[in-house]
Design brief:
Blueprint: H1 10-27, E1 29-34, H2 41-52, E2 55-60, H3 66-79, H4 85-89, H5 97-107, E3 114-119, H6 121-127, H7 131-143, E4 148-154, H8 157-163, E5 176-179, H9 185-192, H10 196-206, H11 210-213, H12 222-230, H13 236-248, H14 253-264, H15 269-276, H16 280-292, E6 296-299, E7 312-315, H17 318-327, H18 331-335, H19 339-369, E8 380-385, E9 392-398, E10 409-414, H20 423-433, E11 444-449, E12 461-463, H21 465-471
Parallel strand pairs: 1-4, 1-5, 2-3, 3-4, 10-11, 11-12
Antiparallel strand pairs: 6-7, 8-9, 9-10
Helix pairs in contact: 1-2, 5-7, 9-10, 10-17, 10-21, 12-19, 14-15, 14-16, 14-17, 17-19, 19-21
C-alpha cells in the first residue's frame, strides 16, 4: 500500500516494478542503485517493497566485522516475510553467504518471486574486501536463472560507480544501474505548491532532499521555514546536514576543513588555503577526496583559450551548500537557544548568497532546454573568469565543452527581488563578454532575471524563473 507521506519517485518505482516482473518471468535480475546520503534510496526501496507486496528481505549493512554482518543478515532473514523465515527464527544458521543465498533461492518461484536488498554495499566491502567476489559467485551459481530480484544499494558514489567496471568481479552481471537523484526544481515546486520564483528560492535552500522538504509546510515562506528550522536543534534543516557529514567523513579533520572553506564561499585554491589553514599538499589531497566523493565540483573558465587553469570550487548540492554557509556555523547559537542570531545572519547574507548559488541551476536548466532559440548551437554552459578575477561572465554557452572552437552565447544572471534586468546590466555584459576568448560578432547574448526586464535590451535573449521551472517539468 502506498504511503501518503512518500513524494515523487514515480519513474524509479515503475522501473523497479518492471525489473521484478522480469525476474519472475525470465529468472533473476540484478539492480544497482546509488545516490547521495539522505537522498531517499532506502525510503524508495521500502516504498517499492510495500507497493509490490513481494516476499523480500531487506538488509542494512553497518561496517561490522564480516562474521557479524553475516549474522545480522541471518537475523534479517528471520524477520522477513520469506517462506520458511520461521525456521531461521527457530535457529537455522548459515555459516557462509553462499549458503544463505542458496536457501533464499529455494524459497522463490515464478508465482512468488523474492526481492533481496543489500543496503550500503561499501560497508560490506569495507570490512570484507572479498565480498564482491562472493556476490559474483552467488549470482553466477545461485541467483541467476532463479526468480530473485537482487537490489544492491550504496551512498559512496565513486565506490558504487566502480562496482560494475571492467576490472571488477561484478562486471557484466548488473542488469540495471540507476542514480537516485534529489528531487528536481519542478518536483520541489509541486511538493511545496510554489510558483517559479519562490520554488527556485526553496530549491536553493533545501535542494531536493525529501525529508527536508517534508518538514516545509505548504504555504510557508522561505523566511518562515528557515526561522522555524533554526529555532529547533532537532529540525530536519539542522539534523540532515549533520548526519550527511558525519557519515561521509567519520574522520573529518582535513577534508572537513577544506569543505567548510568551500561552503563558506571561497572558490579559488589560494583563498581556500587561507581560509582552511591547510598546506598546499594537504589541501590538494582534501579537494581530490571531496571531488571523488562528488561532494564538491571544480570548474575551469569556459572559452577557446588553452591552458592557464583557474579552477574554482563549489559545494555540489544546494542543501549542503546552504547548510555549510548558514546552518553549520550557527549550531552553537541554535543549541544554546539563540536562534535569532542564526536567523539574522541567514537573512542578511541571503541576497548575496542566492545571487551566486543560482548560477549552477541556471546553467543546468539551459542545458536541459537546449537548443534555446537565439543561442545558436550552445548545448554546454559554464562561466568565464580570469585568474586575477577582474573579469567574470556568469554564462558561457558552447556546442561542446570538450572541444571549444567558438563561443555561441554569453550571459548574465541577475537574481534580485523587485529589480529587473536593466540596460546598464546589458552594457556590463557586453563589456565583459568582449574579453572572453572565442567571442565574436556572431555570439549571442542572454539575460536571466528573477524580476523581469526593462525595455530597450535589443536582441538579448531573456529568460526568467518560469523558463527554469519549465526545463525540469515533464
Amino acid at each position: 500500500m502506498a504511503d501518503p507521506g512518500f513524494i515523487g519517485r514515480t519513474a524509479y518505482l515503475r522501473e523497479l516494478s518492471a525489473r521484478l516482473a522480469l525476474a519472475a518471468g525470465s529468472g533473476g535480475d540484478f539492480v544497482l542503485l546509488r545516490g547521495r546520503r539522505q537522498v531517499g534510496k532506502s525510503r524508495l526501496i521500502t516504498e517499492f517493497l510495500a507497493r509490490s507486496g513481494a516476499r523480500s528481505v531487506y538488509f542494512q549493512a553497518a561496517r561490522r566485522p564480516a562474521r557479524e554482518e553475516l549474522a545480522s543478515f541471518t537475523e534479517a532473514l528471520g524477520r522477513s516475510n520469506l517462506t520458511g523465515a520461521d525456521l531461521v527464527r527457530n535457529g537455522l544458521q548459515f555459516t557462509t553467504w553462499e549458503s544463505a543465498f542458496e536457501w533464499i533461492a529455494r524459497t522463490a518461484s515464478p508465482d512468488d518471486p523474492v526481492v533481496v536488498v543489500l543496503d550500503e554495499l561499501p560497508y560490506l566491502t569495507g570490512t570484507n574486501p572479498s565480498f564482491e567476489s562472493v556476490l559474483q559467485l552467488v549470482w553466477d551459481h545461485t541467483l541467476e536463472g532463479r526468480p530473485v530480484l537482487l537490489v544492491v544499494v550504496g551512498s559512496d558514489l565513486a565506490t558504487m560507480e566502480a562496482v560494475s567496471s571492467y576490472d571488477r568481479p561484478l562486471y557484466g552481471r548488473v542488469r540495471m544501474e540507476r542514480v537516485v537523484l534529489p528531487l528536481n526544481l519542478a518536483e520541489v515546486a509541486d511538493v511545496l505548491g510554489l510558483g517559479a520564483p519562490d520554488a527556485v528560492d526553496a530549491y536553493l535552500t533545501v535542494g531536493g532532499f525529501p525529508r527536508v522538504l517534508l518538514s516545509w509546510a505548504r504555504g510557508m515562506s522561505r523566511r518562515e521555514f528557515v526561522r522555524e528550522g533554526l529555532s529547533d536543534p532537532t529540525s530536519a534543516l539542522v539534523v540532515i546536514g549533520e548526519r550527511m557529514l558525519a557519515a561521509e567523513f567519520p574522520d573529518p579533520e582535513t577534508a572537513r576543513a577544506a569543505l567548510e572553506a568551500v561552503g563558506h564561499g571561497e572558490r579559488s585554491f589560494s583563498a581556500l588555503s587561507d581560509r582552511s589553514g591547510l598546506s598546499g599538499t594537504s589541501l590538494h589531497r582534501a579537494l581530490a577526496l571531496l571531488r571523488r566523493k562528488r561532494v564538491i565540483e571544480g570548474e575551469d573558465p569556459l572559452s577557446t583559450a588553452r591552458g592557464g587553469r583557474a579552477t574554482r570550487y563549489r559545494v555540489a548540492d544546494p542543501y549542503l551548500r546552504f547548510w555549510l554557509r548558514f546552518v553549520g556555523p550557527a549550531l552553537a547559537d541554535v543549541e544554546r537557544g539563540r536562534a535569532d542570531l542564526a536567523v539574522t545572519r541567514a537573512e542578511d547574507g541571503w541576497s548575496s548568497y542566492r545571487g551566486r548559488a543560482v548560477e549552477p541551476l541556471v546553467r543546468q536548466s539551459l542545458e536541459r532546454l537546449a537548443p534555446v532559440p537565439g543561442l545558436g548551437r550552445a548545448r554546454d554552459f559554464g562561466g568565464y573568469w580570469t585568474r586575477a578575477n577582474d573579469v567574470e561572465v556568469d554564462l558561457v554557452g558552447v556546442a561542446d565543452r570538450r572541444r571549444v572552437q567558438h563561443i555561441d552565447a554569453v550571459g548574465s544572471v541577475k537574481w534580485r527581488d523587485g529589480q529587473p534586468f536593466t540596460t546598464a546590466d546589458a552594457a556590463n555584459l557586453r563589456r565583459a563578454a568582449s574579453v572572453v576568448p572565442g567571442v565574436d560578432d556572431t555570439t549571442n547574448l542572454v539575460a536571466v532575471s528573477r524580476s523581469g526586464f526593462v525595455d530597450g535590451l535589443g536582441d538579448v535573449v531573456r529568460l526568467g524563473p518560469g523558463d527554469l521551472l519549465n526545463a525540469w517539468s515533464g
